[in-house]
Amino acid sequence: AICEHGCKYGECMGPNKCKCFPGFTGKTCNQDLNECGLKPRPCEHRCVNTHGSYKCYCLNGYMLMPDGTCASSRTCAMVNCQHGCEEVKGEVQCLCPSGGLQLGPNGRTCIDIDECSTGKAVCSYNRRCVNTFGSYYCKCQLGYELKYISGRYDCVDVNECVTNTHRCNLHAECLNTKGSFKCKCKQGYRGNGFDCA
């Protein structure tokens, strides 16, 4: 079985046929499946999609049960949690629907953790971290693009001279560099490559 474009989060089962791991979808299994949009809905109240999975949480006044259902709870209503609550060793605690959120100083509302600035994010050397509410993702550094090469996805240098995305002067040569480009005025012209006279 050969899958020309690979199977990012899955296995190659036949010629260009991928079988995706749970939580992923697409021809090459490179897209996260939004379980929250499935019918029947996986959560009773509210659902937050995560990378390769999802999390359920309840409305205020309800407690999240081990089976993912929401049970009405007077204690939860009294604590006044933003995203429902759970009981841990007989103590009621407010919940945050994702690991990328933390309880705020009031112990009831959830605030975002910026994984990119706290150093919690793990991105390979040629990728940059982009914070999102409740999570983060890794994007190719500027001047690089995601390509499928020899069996895996990698960030590859964009040749601005070939893609014509450079801003070199009409009388200048474009020279590709790693992650960028340089402009050099042609013979008989002087300038910085962007302006040649």
Describe this structure in words.
It is a single chain. The longest helix is centred in the middle third of the chain and has 6 residues, at 74-79. By secondary structure, the protein is mostly beta strands. The chain has helices at 74-79, 115-118, 160-163; strands at residues 10-14, 17-20, 24-25, 31-32, 46-50, 53-57, 62-64, 70-72, 85-88, 91-94, 101-103, 110-112, 127-132, 135-140, 144-149, 152-157, 172-177, 180-185. The radius of gyration is 25 Å and the shape is elongated. Strand 3 (24-25) and strand 4 (31-32) form a beta hairpin. The N and C termini lie far apart (58 Å). It has four domains: 1-33, Ribbon (Laminin); 44-112, no CATH class; 127-156, no CATH class; 158-196, Laminin (Ribbon), CATH 2.10.25.10. The strands form nine sheets. Strands 1-2 form a two-stranded antiparallel sheet. Strands 3-4 form a two-stranded antiparallel ribbon. 25% of the residues are buried. The chain is built from three helices and 18 strands. The mean pLDDT is 85. Its main location: secreted. It comes from Fregata magnificens. GO terms for molecular function: calcium ion binding. Keywords: Calcium, Cell adhesion, Developmental protein, Differentiation, Disulfide bond, EGF-like domain, Extracellular matrix, Repeat, Secreted, Signal. One of its GO terms (biological process) is cell differentiation.
